[in-house]
Amino acid sequence: MKGSLFEFNMLFDFCCQVFEAKGLSAENAALASTVLLDADLKGIDSHGLARLGGYMRLSDKNRLNLKANFNIVHETPTTATVDADSGLGLLAAPFAMDLAIKKAEIYGCGFVCVNNSNHFGIAGYHSELAVQKNMIGFASTNASPLVAPTYSNERLLGTNPMAFSFPVKNRFPITADFATTTAANGKLEILQRKNEMAPSGWIQNKDGTPTHDPNTLSAGGSLLPLGSDAEHGSHKGFCLGAVVDLFSGVLSGANFGPWVPPFVSFLEPKQNLVGKGIGHFVGAWRVDAFGDLDSYYKNIAIWINTFKSAKTIDANKQVIIPGEPEHETKKIRLLQGIPLVPKVIDDLKILANQLKIKHPF
């Protein structure tokens, strides 16, 4: 440990202790910790240990069931819908992806909806589960309403991320993992902790005027769809967020639109909900269901090399393959440690003291 850097194993053991202290089995605690810390390793700090306290507070409010039993409530050979029993999305999404992969192994593809769930961490962790089986993976989730559609100042959608992962031989997968907003809410939370302002095009005030204040959401402001405004294509970001909501919420039987329950424990869900909990949608496609596997791996290697060797405007820059920054960050952080900002450390200390467990901070 150096300064605010902490070894992965140290944080993993602490995270497992927290989950086990709240009632998870050792196996489930390890999986939940793995999903959570995968975000920190990849540099997506907003979705890692910074969220641990939030999960525990939801549990204390009886809005998160840490002893959930996942049930398949509808099924065909290639599809299924899972009721997550108000459990951790960190566990429900891997359960759903495992089911999708098993279906794809037999039929070439598999798709699974999840309802009655909670926040599932980073979408890319779940989509990358498929590449281990020579499959293309997809994962998406809806989220609490913080986003105003193009031309609106009403918060009707979540940041609604989606991720696609493509297997690559002898290399990390190509993974496109992104929110359907210009910036995820977690990025605002990081700016708040650092007391920094937000870039242009991320957020708007309650009346719909642009702002740089990262605290504006608490005053009724809203995040903007990918593209920021109509002139720069925000209708496309709105469409992407809508598609995620339709798959994850409307199709699954979860809540959707403005009814998706908030992640923060101090805000109560709306009355007269239209579904159950938060929803996810995952899928897996077997590559060899479409053609020769060796040919695919040869072609995707050519694709990568073509884009990496592309001429660039700046001689000091290279085209970045989707998933490349996260992979490089993971290599560095496994060696050097995971950085945690003081406010996250303080929150984790409070959590450890409440649960009477040792902490590394």
The CATH architecture of the largest domain can be named as 2-Layer Sandwich
What fold name stands as the CATH topology of the largest domain?
Ribosomal Protein S8, Chain: A, domain 1
* Major sheet characteristics: 7 strands, mixed
Instruction: State the end-to-end CA separation.
Output: 10 Å
CATH class label of the largest domain: Alpha Beta
Number of strands: 12
**How confident is the prediction overall: mean pLDDT?**
95
Shape call: globular
Flag low-confidence runs: none
Task: Explain what you see.
- It is built from ten helices and twelve strands.
- With 361 residues, it is an alpha+beta fold.
- The strands form three sheets. It has a seven-stranded mixed β-sheet with strand order 2-3-4-11-5-6-7.
- A hairpin with a 7-residue loop joins strand 6 and strand 7 (174-178).
What is the fold's blueprint, element by element?
Blueprint: E1 5-6, H1 8-21, H2 26-41, H3 52-60, E2 71-75, E3 79-83, H4 89-107, E4 109-117, H5 123-128, E5 135-141, E6 162-166, E7 174-178, H6 185-194, E8 203-204, E9 210-211, E10 222-223, H7 234-250, E11 278-286, H8 293-308, H9 324-336, E12 338-339, H10 342-355
Helix pairs in contact: 1-2
Q: Which key terms come to mind for this protein?
A:
single chain, 361 residues, Hypothetical Oxidoreductase Yiak, Chain: A, domain 1, Ribosomal Protein S8, Chain: A, domain 1, Wheat Germ Agglutinin (Isolectin 2), domain 1, 7-stranded mixed sheet, 10 helices
